[in-house]
Amino acid sequence: MTKTASIKTEYQVTVNYPVWQKVEQIAEQFNLSVSELLEHIAQGQLKVVAVSTNSEPLSDRDIANYFIWLASQSDVEINAYKLQKLMYYAQAWHLAIYGTPLFNADFQAWVHGPVIPALLERYTSLFRWEPIAKKIEQPKLSEEIGDFLEEVAEAYFEYDDETLEGMTCGEMPWLEARGNIPRDESCHAIISQESMKKYYSARVKEETSV
Description:
Elements: H1 17-29, H2 34-42, H3 60-74, H4 80-98, E1 107-110, E2 113-115, H5 117-127, H6 143-156, H7 161-169, H8 172-178, E3 190-191, H9 193-208
Helix pairs in contact: 3-4, 3-6, 4-6, 4-7, 4-9
């Protein structure tokens, strides 16, 4: 009786150095080795999404309009302050997952949580604390961005502005930006994108390791 030998075949994929550097950078964001990163992807714990780098940068208004449109399709009411928190979480999770900002705007660490002042003024001047009653057509964003924003909405639409305020004000990026400033005192310090990326990347790693 002949014993058949087990033969293990290994395949090698060659990539150019800039691509390898990018893979290493992505792995580093999650405090993983490259092999661990690839294993997470293979097991479905991390999803790889291609994002075009040739598109025009998105503005905070682009993202705000999408959330307002999405809320109207979902029978969800959002006021100017809830919109700010949705914008913040969209930016934070995009930094954590993709390593780049979703749109070009900075948040300040106000008493009521992260705020883009000009955007807040735009909607409070029209609606104050009331739900934003603005009819708009579906913004023309890429399918990838649309899917991403819908995931953010699925996670946070159920909360009101006060609950979202409590959530953001209990997280490190807002706390670090304010430093020793008392909770109820005015502050216009910028919440750095680096602190957002660091904090929420750690959250991604925690959730994918469960």
